[in-house]
Design brief:
CATH class of one domain: Alpha Beta
Helix content: 25-40%
Order of helices and strands: EEEH
Strand content: 15-25%
CATH topology of one domain: Double Stranded RNA Binding Domain
Structural class: alpha+beta
Shape: flat
Length: 70
């Protein structure tokens, strides 16, 4: 399954979350780190949902970029 993620840069690291999986978050010192960590977080989150007998939410979020004059 392919989920959209949002990565944000903070003062000291990067954080990521999955809009379709509330509560599924990760942090990392670098982009590579946070991407690896969010993959692991997604797998862990889905495993927990299945173990609890909960449905796995479909990947429904879309990501688009728009250009605007700044």
């Amino acid at each position: 399954m392919r989920y959209a993620i949002v990565i944000e840069q903070t003062e000291g690291n990067f954080s990521a979350y999955v809009p379709d999986l509330p509560g599924c978050v990760a942090t990392g010192a670098t982009l590579t780190d946070v991407e690896r960590e969010i993959r692991e977080a997604i797998a862990f989150h889905l495993e927990g949902l299945r173990a609890d007998g909960q449905p796995v939410p479909p990947a429904a979020s879309r990501v688009e970029y728009v250009e605007v004059a700044a």
